[in-house]
Amino acid sequence: MSLVNQSEQWKTLESLAGGIAGQHMRDWFDADQSRAAKYSVEGCGIKLDYSKNLINQEILTALFDLAQSQQVAQKRDAMFAGEIVNHTEKRAVLHTALRNFSGEPVLVDGKDVMPEVLATQDKIKDFVHSIHSGEHVGYTGKAIKHIVAIGIGGSFLGPKIMSEALKPYWHKGITVHYVANVDGCHIQDVLANLDHTDTLIVMSSKSFTTQETLQNTLTAKQWFLDQGGSQSDIAKHFVAVSSNVKAAVEFGMDENNIFPMWDWVGGRYSLWSAIGLPIALTIGYQNYRELLEGAYAMDCHFKEAPPEQNLPMLLGLLGVWYTNFHAAQSHVLLPYYHYLRGFPAYVQQLDMESNGKGVAGLNEEVDYATGPVIWGSEGTNGQHSFHQLIHQGKVLIPADFMFPLNVHNQEDTHHAMLASNCFGQTQALMQGKTYQECYADLEGSNLDEETRKSLATHKTMPGNKPSNTMLFDQLDPKTLGALVCMYEHKVFVQGAIWGVNSFDQWGVELGKVLGNQVLDKLVDTDAQLDFDSSTNQLIAAFRAANK
Ligand code: F6P
């Protein structure tokens, strides 16, 4: 296999990138009044305006050629068909089966997985109903009011951030608390304010081996017993989600309280599986199902829409354009919607854990970047802190702006102000402000000539900074499902082009192994320290402070 950067299509893009150096998007907008209409597409309730990007028709065509040369469509079809695309772990990658409403079977090793998927959805539905209706009560007979969802990584970020994003849909009377960090402050803070008789613990761990989640669950169990619950009451207050049912039972979970998932669901793609149980408990099963339906609609769009109208394809290719042909090292996500404030952190795991790899194909070390640092936070807060670097700093940071055209129960003045900030930022990034414009602003002032020139230089905004703007009507469950799925497939497109395995995470695994080795030395204080001198010194400091 030859690496993508050896391809003709890559070389064409390199020369096209050189060709637009020195040109300005402002001039492109001036020269072509139809630019916005030309570079806008809509799908599954999401309107994407990508006209404020450093592209023209020739560049787009070359990007589509690159995708074709790397067989993105064939790789996509292989994933949807249940082929072993995660070759280092010998697994199919089928989060798409979890939201497959086509009625068609999905085969893994010749076996249709859909009956199990549908049975688990029914189990979630029944359980959510029993909690919300008061049929399932705590051991003293009280209705469940609090859910403590324990998990980490994909077993935490998806449920937490989707629940947060769908606040207007929360079921009355239920409050969900999420705990991920093994730092005891977190779980202690959460449990301190709860009554164990109306609390349900949902422990989510695909592997059922993750240190943080096991420890936090043990702490929650001890708290439950210390508060007066007994061993036999645990079944009413603890449920688990895992693909490792055996380990969950050994841990003490009641077998009936275990919601299954499968090894063909990657952790960061798992919110569509029973890992989404806390979401369903928060917003009700019907809304949860609509979240899945939105993702299914985007799956269909990704499979069927031609490249020039295909949202994940366009976003993925634009990402490659900036990462590999403009040396952009980061990508910022800017949701202008308070409830979507966690979304950058969600995409951060999705993107960086998927494509942060250095080997393509079976064993070819790559010599090109495979993904930017993903970061961001809600607008307008960022405007008063880090936007400065995006506007005038010397690093190129492409941005994704997101904005709901309608919001639930919000007063118009705030919403219009939020919109004006969002749209105004995309405009400022694109057009900037020239030295002449800045100088002209100062002409009536009583500053001397030298000061005017100096100030105008400092105030000059280069512009030409790329951004996408995504608008949607209201952030309802369906639209959110489509939005999340759009980013999943964007990441897929990029992984397919770079030739990496987007579905393993060996770097994370090494951290887990070394962390456990260090823990052994912290617990056994007599054990000889035989790591590198820095790690030994850190362990010694901990031992000394915890004698
Ligand atoms: O952070 C690495 C990771 O493997 C993620 O991919 C996963 O979502 C997380 O750990 C938690 O794993 P588990 O669900 O097995 O506890």
Automatic annotation (TrEMBL):
GO cellular component: cytosol
Catalysed reactions, semicolon-separated: alpha-D-glucose 6-phosphate = beta-D-fructose 6-phosphate
Primary location group: cytoplasm
Subcellular location: Cytoplasm
Molecular function GO terms recorded: carbohydrate derivative binding; glucose-6-phosphate isomerase activity; monosaccharide binding
Pathway assignment: Carbohydrate biosynthesis; gluconeogenesis; Carbohydrate degradation; glycolysis; D-glyceraldehyde 3-phosphate and glycerone phosphate from D-glucose: step 2/4
Protein keywords: Cytoplasm, Gluconeogenesis, Glycolysis, Isomerase
InterPro entries (alphabetical): G6P_Isomerase, G6P_Isomerase_C, Phosphoglucose_isomerase_CS, SIS_dom_sf, SIS_PGI_1, SIS_PGI_2
Family affiliation: Belongs to the GPI family.
NCBIfam families with a match to the protein in the record: PRK00179.1 (NF001211)
Protein name per the record: Glucose-6-phosphate isomerase
Species annotation: Aliiglaciecola lipolytica E3
Lineage: Bacteria, Pseudomonadati, Pseudomonadota, Gammaproteobacteria, Alteromonadales
